[in-house]
Amino acid sequence: MLRGIRQTAMTQNFGISKATPVIGNFSDITKSYTDGDFTLIASSISTGQFTYSSSNPLVATVSGNMVHIVGTGTTTLTADQGFDANYSQASKQATLTVSSVNQSISFGALTAKTYGDATLI
């Protein structure tokens, strides 16, 4: 204690909130019905684990980070990232549009036939 000055201890409590990560590499996707399975890869500075989902299982299904096209149309793909020690959870959506493809039928060469010939099989 200094002469004439009283010293006292003081305690101050404060909290630090987790930051919200920004999810990148997750934007709208356009595919054709005949395209194969593809991988979703979102990223952020957080180390939280990503999970993915599709809003319309008639267009696409998701298993892990693999997307399987089921039909034509649109679906919303969602990337959810869990929290870690420093970051809260986050979510980002992207639209998957799956278009149909033109169908083509090819025939081999046909032999010439005249009315009255045997049936063409």
Unreliably modeled segments: none
Succession of helices and strands:
EEEEEEE
Structural class: mainly beta
Number of distinct beta strands: 7
CATH class of the domain at 29-99: Mainly Beta
* Count of DSSP-assigned helices: 0
On the 0-100 scale, what is the average pLDDT?
91
Relative helix content: under 10%
Largest sheet: 4 strands, mixed
CATH superfamily of the domain at 29-99: Immunoglobulins
Distance between the termini: 113 Å
- Specify Rg, calculated over alpha carbons: 30 Å
* CATH topology grouping of the domain at 29-99: Immunoglobulin-like
Strand order of the largest sheet: 1-7-6-3
The general outline is rod-shaped
Q: Please indicate the percent range of residues in DSSP E strands (runs of 2 or more).
A: 25-35%
CATH architecture field of the domain at 29-99: Sandwich
Describe this structure in words.
β4 and β5 form a beta hairpin. The strands form two sheets. The chain has a four-stranded mixed β-sheet, with no helix packed on it. 0% of the residues lie in helices and 31% in strands. The N and C termini lie far apart (113 Å). The chain has a domain of 71 residues: Immunoglobulin-like (Sandwich). The protein has no helices and seven strands. With 121 residues, it is an all-beta fold. It is rod-shaped.
Describe the structure using short key phrases:
single chain, 121 residues, mainly beta, Immunoglobulin-like, 4-stranded mixed sheet, 3-stranded antiparallel sheet, 0% helix
Helices, strands, pairings?
Elements: E1 29-32, E2 38-39, E3 50-54, E4 60-63, E5 66-69, E6 73-81, E7 90-99
Parallel strand pairs: 1-7
Antiparallel strand pairs: 2-5, 3-6, 4-5, 6-7
